[in-house]
């Protein structure tokens, strides 16, 4: 991958009813050259729109990939990767860092309203399956829309200089945590 290729990484952090989202534009050469911020409702249904709005506000045509940390930020505010891809016209790669049996049971336990549960499960089930990807001796779990499995794995590896966390997501997570600390 060329050193000037750019990815936008989006991660979040929350403490109360509002989740702080941070987006970081990082080159494959590890240079950070942009930030964007947004908010979503903890336990809400607005995370997908938040990510789309963040990309829109950046208005950068040089971003080639969109990486998101996980699929259920802000307490099961499920991201619809296909809607994000359709809106932004960017390949979308969701990266998680732990093996799990999936979120279906956790979603059922988190909400009392059967309609809320069904709505989240419908969105969750519509997403691509996670695939394990070895990166620097660690394993991450990847879902992607707009890229085949091999290319998505190559993108994750290209933006991960060490450890298992891609640099755009690592920096975005730090920025989101900083925003929460300021609150």
Automatic annotation (TrEMBL):
It comes from the Archaea. Belongs to the UPF0215 family. PANTHER family: UPF0215 PROTEIN MJ1150. This is UPF0215 protein AMS69_04510. The lineage of its organism: Archaea, Methanobacteriati, Methanobacteriota, Stenosarchaea group, Halobacteria.
């Amino acid at each position: 991958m060329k050193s000037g290729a750019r990815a936008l990484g989006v991660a979040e952090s929350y403490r109360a009813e509002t989740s702080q989202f941070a987006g970081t534009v990082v080159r494959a050469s590890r240079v950070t050259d942009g930030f964007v911020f947004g908010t979503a409702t903890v336990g809400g249904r607005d995370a997908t729109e938040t990510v789309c709005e963040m990309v829109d506000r950046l208005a950068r045509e040089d971003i080639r990939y969109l990486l998101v940390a996980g699929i259920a930020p802000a307490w099961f505010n499920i991201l619809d990767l296909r809607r994000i891809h359709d809106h932004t016209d960017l390949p979308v790669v969701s990266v998680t860092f732990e093996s799990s049996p999936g979120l279906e049971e956790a979603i059922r336990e988190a909400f009392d309203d059967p309609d809320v549960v069904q709505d989240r499960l419908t969105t969750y089930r519509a997403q691509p399956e996670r695939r394990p990807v070895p990166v620097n001796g660690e394993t991450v779990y990847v879902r992607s829309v707009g890229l085949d499995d091999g290319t998505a794995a190559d993108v994750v590896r290209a933006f991960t200089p060490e450890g298992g966390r891609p640099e755009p997501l690592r920096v975005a997570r730090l920025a989101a945590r900083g925003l929460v600390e300021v609150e």
